[in-house]
Amino acid sequence: MVGQIIHIEQCGFLTTLQDAGRKGFLQYGVSKSGAMDLRSAFYANCLLGNDEHEAVLEITQSPHRFLFLQDAIVAFTGGGLQPQLNNQPTPLYQPVFIPADAMIEFRQQIPGFRLYMAVAGGFKTDEFLHSYSTNLLVKAGGHHGRALKKEDLLQIKTPLTAVQKNIFAVLKSGAKIELNIQPPAFTTNTIRVIHGLEWNYLNDSSKEIAADAKFKVSPQSNRMGYRLNGTALETVQSCEIISSAVTQGTVQLTASGEMIVLMADAQTVGGYPRIAQVCSVDLPVLAQKKPGDEIQFQLISLREAEELYLRDIEQLNTIKQTLQQLYAG
Hints:
Layout: E1 3-10, E2 15-18, H1 38-47, E3 56-60, E4 64-68, E5 72-78, E6 81-85, E7 88-89, E8 95-98, E9 103-109, E10 114-119, E11 153-156, H2 162-172, E12 190-195, H3 204-212, E13 214-217, E14 225-229, E15 244-245, E16 250-253, E17 259-262, E18 269-270, E19 274-278, H4 283-287, E20 294-299, H5 302-328
Parallel strand pairs: 12-20
Antiparallel strand pairs: 1-4, 1-11, 2-3, 3-10, 4-9, 5-8, 5-10, 6-7, 6-9, 12-19, 13-14, 13-20, 14-17, 15-18, 16-17, 16-19
């Protein structure tokens, strides 16, 4: 089963095709890109027996409507929107059969900000520097290097595997495959961070504020970075550094005392002090915050952050292996 699968009837303000991002090009000034919530993208692909790095749709919270042009099995993960088929909620974190000529609508808001949708066989996308992710800055990768818009047509990349054909047959018969996957808690406001290289640029009172106060995600936020509104932080020295390496999760302090958390489309260097670094395990949680949401940083040690990361990787691998064994059986 290949060919055209989805006609975009209505598209919200930012929906792009994203995979795990492009690696090895930061030294050339090319951002990583990739899914903002990598964990949800991973789940969506694994639920369908896809390669975990296959491109998925990243749908930002706003009304959408997709017409399916052929039978398909899909998986929705993440948050922000509740997909509906014939005005009935379509479950998240489960493989779902969508018949040809069906319309999937996304209107009802739920906790979170970004919904991910994978299709068995993957989406056919443009490759740029070994990744299928959309890089909006250089207009490359994904779907012609841009966000989706009304009247776009999406295609399946490869024919279904034997395993996917079995899943397809089971779901098309009307049976359900219900998996006990616990969705992430997008309602938590706690974002764990470690000290950044320039943490000591902050004066003592600002260190306490950064660690204890709540900050609100500003409307001036996007896939490059989240600007945080709250009490302005003060430094004990000039608030600038020689341009230095930054990455997703780096918390920069601007001269006005505002913090900016760099996200998936972040630049590769910056001249603002790097006062903290968001733990990788909490980047998916932060990616599901929208303008107006509050967050509160929690400082932890580097060792704790590493242990959380390793535990998270172990859990993801366990889920992947469990699904592979289930589908193989």
